[in-house]
């Protein structure tokens, strides 16, 4: 048996979470360092997985397979393709930054709390590591049931992270803040549970179909794909569509796609900035990733059937999210709506069913993670200085804190996909990929380019430029810890914008295989086709 | 003797027990009526065991007895605690579990 | 030699990186680092130029591939450079004028505490602009295209503490983004049509493509050009862009960046040649803009905004020339280069005047400055003579050729375009004479500024005057040198193709008419602003003047047509999202909550009532089971 690298990558942060939670109340600092070290070690493991992954090799690599609940055909099956390995890399990469950025977010307010067992800090970092573990194993699982369990289970730590830890200061006082936070956390949970419930029905349905046709029910992705390729499994059109919709609904909630998006602005607005990054840059990616891995591969015909409707919803997400971002007065909610617009692009790319579209969508997931992390974390640093999330509370920050303003601008420019920064590559690929199959859709999607410039630059202008507001006067610039969080992210944005090859090399073969699953090939250029 | 008669007896005991649970307010009495219902069920199980000629019913009767014993332990403890705190064994007085 | 091309871009990029991340310790040397790197980029360009001269016309182009940038499926984009005569012309102009303006800025920005950052942005601009003209494919060009947009945004908004500057910067970027959408759609069309977006293969395969597609690509490229080159209908940002420091206006918003649209159209000449409809659109845009800008330029009292109107108008000439096809490409580029000299010189002159006048920009508060600023006066005057097309100076050669080419288009179209160009020449003479008279002649009309400082006009330091003198030399001699033995035509012909223009009435007649119109313009301006004293507060004037002062109502139009509906739309959508999309969900939640509130009353806390319901439930279940068995 080979070395269980994937289990270890997911297991390490899980063990780290337990260890962090067990740190005694008085040793808060140790808990932070422990969490950081564990997340960095996970990053090393993820990097090893990335390097050991051979783009030219088998579709799923580093596989592990063990019987688990044999009676129901549930197996503990792990394996990664190029898409998964890239996203595991993203997750493992972002979590250390999330931990470093949230270093003081969970410090108890009173140093001498009478309750000796009170230890929110330990809980905060343990929950973050737990989310990381569950996200990573979701990317690795090739057994539908195994995936489902962790897809749902990650809601629990996320719920506590959103509901339990918020920004220190709030315009409307501590009590109102707690009320809003709990509203946001419950909304997050209910939306995602509703999605998960429908998916559970579809998961059971899938088992029923396989049990009916193959004799022995199975959740194994590879077994199902082989059975279909061999002609043993032939779902009826109705069954396939129903199952597809069940899966897609859950992923669309998580992603989130219009009109299932309204939980995101609340959750990202009320959570602390690092947790908001965890939501949008890490957890939500499981939704779009699962569309690629499960929806398209398990239900190719139904995916094609649903494509027109999904493209329309994605387009609405792009334009609607961007317009709403323009209209926001709250910095974090603005970034949340911008993310909705970006998720529209990702879903558009996936369902354009071209190699540029899907390759671009995968890159988009990675790049959006990095760029949103950069923008959101700097926004969080800004908010922590002034204690207000409202755009109108700021003005002229550039004058007093030029480095903060500069990094905020670069994060913003990445969000609006400036060429030279990583998101441009992915956004352009998605647009080209969409355009080559659906020209009208591609053209409408380009309006997102203009609107992105609008919401980013309006945000920057209102907060950073102009005369220095009295409340902003004397605001300190970025500290060393904060700069250490932002600088690598910015460097990465530039590197991946100029040289995305390491990523595309890994992703391309996986995308080609997904395309061949749905029996689609790229449209030929008009000139070649006419010859 | 026709074993069906035991079933009639079991039903009768069960009804008495149920009526007691519903009508009486004293928690101890209610508790005894619950025991009566459990034992009525036991009687039915044993009878069925005899009628079908296998041991399943008798085994289940043992289970029931174990559960009943556990229940008595927990239940009496609760009743005693309630009685200590509010000086009453009436089940209607302990209605705080509603929202 | 070809490995040097990358260094053209890398040197200023390096400067930008060092200056922007270097921190305060570079404050004292930063401007020198920036200037030296810009200068060394010019040296590299010069080396490449002489190397290129050593080869014959057809194989002068150099090609160099650095690495594969994006490769997904058949979509392949390289970071690769192409240096042909067209790129070379631009590279020399950009690095040459760029270096001069770096030198000028050392003096101009001397008292600004953020001078290091200013030079960082200038270097960033040079790198992006060079990337734009050196790229060998449209996607890489797009990177430079947005890169110059970013540099322009940063530099317009350099004095960020002024809300007007921040707004102008944002406006410039967003209007440009509208144009960028055009460029990205054009690239997508090329990819779906030709399977590539590299210059060579695309332009070589134009014959096989349908005219409809080519028209589409052409119109989208035109949209991009309109955004970057401030052509109608995306012109509104250029006037506001004058909020930036004056060296920026000279380099970016006069000499180089705003001419990128002309480069794009000329570079894509093969596409436009095969798409006559798109060409008509190009010349229409050019002709409309050249008049639009000229009219705006007549009414502005702000010296920089008057010059901005002029820039818009002159680029209108270039765009029109580029839309005329092979008879115009060469002259579009030639006018672009000569304009780069004299307009940069004029802006630097304006900056020198402002430098001496406490940053006053209102020409009605100038007057009689020729005595106080002799060098500025002479260099500005030479630039003035060049732009109005005074015989023998550079503007004369390039503009005259464009007017000839416009008439040579033939038919009604030729007369309309030629007429517009001729009229534009007259208006140019008028507004430039107006600027000249109001600034350097007449009585002095200075007033103390808001803090009570009386201006003490003085000549600017050497670091500022030397670049002005060099540019003045260019303004005087460039046109003559280019036209000597048709040197410029021969230089560019292998790249852009060239046809001799034959205006129906003969070239001499066109030149004569141009002279007459120019003299009329000068005379009219002298009659209005030279003979009579200039009032220091603007009179009410006619409706046309008032409209022109408001940039012919462009902002009002945009406000009513785009901004207001946009605001209402976003506000409406925020409401809909909250009350509608979210409301449905919250409504469902509230309904469930209400229902459970009712049902909660069943839970009365009495153990006996729970027992009854359990008993009743069991009874129902037993009854149902018995019934079902009865049925089955």
Short note summarizing the structure:
Chain B has 99 residues and is mainly alpha-helical. Chain B has three helices and no strands.
If you had to describe this structure to a student in words, what would you say it looks like?
Chain A contains 21 helices and two strands. Chain A is mainly alpha-helical and 531 residues long. Chain A has a two-stranded antiparallel ribbon. The longest helix of chain A is centred in the middle third of the chain and has 42 residues, at 173-214. Chain B is mostly helical and 99 residues long. Helices cover 78% and strands 0% of the residues of chain B. In chain B, helix 1 (4-23) packs antiparallel against helix 2 (27-52) and helix 2 (27-52) runs antiparallel to helix 3 (56-86). The longest helix of chain B is centred in the C-terminal third of the chain and has 31 residues, at 56-86. Chain B is elongated, with a radius of gyration of 16 Å. Chain B starts with a helix and ends in a 13-residue tail after the last helix. The model of chain B has no long low-confidence stretch (mean pLDDT 88). Among the domains of chain C are: 318-539, no CATH class; 559-630, no CATH class. The model of chain C has no long low-confidence stretch (mean pLDDT 89). With 632 residues, chain C is mainly α. In chain C, helix 15 runs antiparallel to helix 19 (462-483). Classes of the chains: A mainly alpha (531), B mainly alpha (99), C mainly alpha (632). Chains in contact: A-C, B-C. At the A-C interface, helix 7, helix 12, helix 14, helix 17 and helix 18 of A face strand 1, helix 5, helix 6 and helix 23 of C. Chain B: It catalyses: a quinone + NADH + 5 H(+)(in) = a quinol + NAD(+) + 4 H(+)(out). Chain B: It comes from Actinacidiphila glaucinigra.
SSE topology:
The complex is a heterotrimer of chains A (531), B (99) and C (632).
Chain A: H1 5-21, H2 28-52, E1 61-69, E2 74-80, H3 82-101, H4 120-140, H5 144-153, H6 155-164, H7 173-214, H8 221-229, H9 237-254, H10 263-270, H11 273-298, H12 300-326, H13 331-352, H14 355-386, H15 397-400, H16 402-415, H17 422-437, H18 439-464, H19 480-498, H20 501-517, H21 526-530
Antiparallel strand pairs in A: 1-2
Chain B: H1 4-23, H2 27-52, H3 56-86
Helix pairs in contact in B: 1-2, 2-3
Chain C: H1 3-21, H2 30-53, E1 62-72, E2 75-83, H3 85-108, H4 115-134, H5 138-156, H6 163-194, H7 199-204, H8 211-228, H9 237-240, H10 246-255, H11 260-267, H12 269-273, H13 276-299, H14 303-323, H15 329-356, H16 374-388, H17 394-408, H18 411-440, H19 462-483, H20 487-496, H21 507-530, H22 543-549, H23 554-600, H24 607-631
Antiparallel strand pairs in C: 1-2
Helix pairs in contact in C: 1-2, 1-4, 2-3, 2-4, 3-4, 3-10, 3-15, 3-19, 4-5, 5-6, 5-10, 6-8, 8-11, 8-13, 10-15, 11-14, 13-14, 13-18, 13-22, 14-15, 14-17, 14-18, 15-16, 15-17, 15-19, 15-20, 16-18, 16-19, 17-18, 17-19, 17-21, 18-21
